[in-house]
Design a protein that fits this description.
Length: 228
């Protein structure tokens, strides 16, 4: 997989994509992540990539020309499954979207910033708009990093135990069951006996029951979605 990220602040990604699973996946050659400074694609001698909005609204807007130049330059190198814009009013990112995108070969992620981007970019250059929640960030860099992490960890070989990813929360619209490790007792707090029984069928039954109970208590909306 190849992920190109376009940003006015590529330095924000330092440490976010160069450690842990994402870093190991890059070193294994499972994914290549390239950061592109939007200012490298402007014709403005001062490297400005934003301007005041028409109509007098407050804030600054990313201009269409450098964005078009950046996307066009990347498209000359490879074909893309998606050109994604991180936007607070996009569809909300979830595990199902991460699963889908983990099978892609190439994606571009354009990070929003300031007041937003010239709307013509969204009309003509973007194929999908993604939000990570109903709130506004200073820029889309954190959203792009979240998406990248969620996608890359699903690529076969990225994590040591691939079954671990399949049992994560939200994979089946349920929250994950509780997990425990050694010691079996600490300060009088004990691990549930069923997990020490060695009876795998009963353990799986317990895990499903716990997932259902936790989802009903903490995220009943997920169960409502399954009914739909």
């Amino acid at each position: 997989m190849h992920i190109d990220i376009i940003s006015v602040l590529p330095e924000m990604f330092s440490g976010l994509i160069d450690c842990s699973i994402v870093d190991r996946a890059q070193k294994k050659g499972l994914v290549e992540i390239e950061l592109h400074n939007l200012r490298d694609y402007t014709t403005n001698k001062h490297r400005h990539v934003d301007d005041y909005p028409f109509g007098g609204e407050a804030g600054m807007v990313l201009q269409i020309e450098p964005i078009d130049n950046a996307i066009s330059a990347l498209k000359q190198k490879r074909q893309y499954d998606e050109v994604i814009y991180t936007s607070p009013d996009g569809e909300v990112f979830n595990q199902q979207i991460a699963n889908q995108m983990s099978s892609y070969r190439n994606i571009i992620i354009l990070c929003g910033h300031y007041k937003g981007i010239d709307y013509r970019v969204r009309e003509h250059l973007i194929t999908r708009e993604i939000s990570i929640g109903d709130y506004v960030l200073t820029g889309g860099e954190l959203a792009a990093a979240v998406m990248t992490d969620a996608i890359v960890r699903l690529i076969p070989g990225a994590i040591g135990d691939e079954q671990s990813a399949l049992s994560d929360s939200f994979q089946d619209d349920l929250l994950a069951p509780p997990v425990y490790t050694r010691p079996a007792e600490y300060k009088g707090w004990k691990v549930p006996e069923i997990l020490l029984s060695g009876h795998q069928a009963k353990v799986e039954e317990w895990r499903l029951q716990q997932s259902l109970e936790r989802t009903e208590r903490l995220r009943p909306d997920l169960l409502d979605k399954k009914k739909d």
